[in-house]
Task: structure prediction
Amino acid sequence: MRIGIGYDIHRLVEKRKLILGGIEIPFDKGLAGHSDADVLTHAICDALLGAAGMGDIGEHFPDSDPAFKDIYSIRLLEKTWEMVSQRGFRIFNIDTTVFAEAPRLGPFKQAIAEKISLTVDLPPECVNIKATTTEGLGFVGSGEGIAAMCVVMLGVS
Ligand code: MG
Result:
C-alpha cells in the first residue's frame, strides 16, 4: 500500500466560475488560475501522483502550456488516473478537506463525491469530501482564497 498527500490553494476573484470537484458551485466569485482552478481536483491529482511516486501536477500539466488553459480539471484527473493506473495501482480510498469561509459546501458534497468517484472509477463510498471554514482566520478566513487537502491510499493490483 502507498499513501499520497495533495494540497492546493487558489485565489478567489470576481468574474470566474467556482468549480470544486468538477461541480459548479453558485457563488459571486470563482477561483483564479490557468485551468478552471479547481483546487480540490488539483489536490486529488497531486495525492494520486504522490502515492504513485510520479511527481506533481505541475510537472505533468504545466501552467505554461496553452493546452491546459481554462481546462476542466476533471480532465486532468482522468489523465492522472490513467497514468497512475497504467503503473498497476488501484485506489483504496480518497479523503479530502476543502477550506473555504464561503460558500457553505454541505449541499454539494455528495455531488462532488459522485463526480470524483465516476472519474476514477471508484465506488462513491470510497470518496469522502469534507469542508470546513477556518473560523475567520488567515487567507481562507478573509475570503482571499480556497484551499484543499487530499490523502489517497493506493494498492498494487
Ligand atoms: Mg492548482
About this structure: Helices lie at 39-52, 57-60, 73-86, 109-119, 138-141. Residues 36 and 104 are 20 Å apart (CA to CA).
